[in-house]
Write a structure and sequence with these properties.
Elements: E1 2-7, H1 14-23, E2 28-30, H2 31-39, H3 46-52, H4 63-72, H5 76-94, E3 101-105, E4 118-123, H6 126-134, H7 141-149, H8 154-160, E5 163-166, H9 170-186
Parallel strand pairs: 1-3, 1-4, 2-3, 4-5
Helix pairs in contact: 1-9, 2-5
Length: 188
């Protein structure tokens, strides 16, 4: 099975592109969905995060409470990631559909040096990226700048990616997704 790592900075179209792969019949593993499962009642991250940050956990992990912890103590993020990232990796490793190709939607693919067979970067001009993100409820310029400061610059991701899709237009993106599926499955 070809493991295609899908990445891109916030607002670049990862979720939309991942949905296009899924609609084409390609199984998709989503890192953000994995975190939600791990944080849910009974999730594998609940007990270890409760031990480290009891104020942020009841029967589930409260993401807003974790943000408050991080705002108060920025070093807490490293401790949270040390707990959560290995659990996310285990969830990802357990995803092994019996198909020629699967997509792994991993926002921090390059930042965390996750190994995949091939990588796909979705990207868009910075002005479009900002407009997309700032149209989200409760998003501010300051929040966006903080998020971007933790992500590898798009130009560096472009240099590392095996494939690049610019997400300017949904139909053009869909056509590129289908072309990439054909290419990868024919050259497996």
């Amino acid at each position: 099975m070809i493991r295609l790592g899908l990445t891109g900075s916030i607002g670049m179209g990862k979720s939309t592109t991942a949905a296009m792969f899924a609609a084409a019949g390609v199984p998709v593993w989503d890192a953000d969905a994995a975190v939600h499962r791990l944080y849910a009642p009974g999730g594998a991250a609940v007990a270890p995060l409760a031990a480290a940050f009891p104020e942020a956990v009841s029967d589930h992990v409260d993401r807003m409470a974790l943000k408050t912890v991080i705002a108060r103590d920025p070093a807490a993020l490293d401790r949270i990631e040390a707990i959560v990232h290995p659990l996310v990796a285990a969830d990802r490793d357990a995803f092994r559909p019996s198909v020629p190709m699967a997509v792994f939607d991993i926002p921090l693919l390059f930042e965390k040096s996750v190994q995949m067979d091939r990588t796909l970067l979705v990207t868009a001009p910075a002005v479009l990226q900002r407009a997309r993100v700032l149209s989200r409820p409760n998003m501010t310029e300051a929040m966006l700048d903080t998020i971007l400061s933790r992500q590898m610059p798009d130009r560096d991701k472009r240099a590392r990616a095996d494939h690049i899709i610019e997400t300017l237009d949904p139909e053009a993106t869909r056509l590129q997704v289908h072309a990439l599926i054909r290419y990868l499955t024919q050259h497996a």
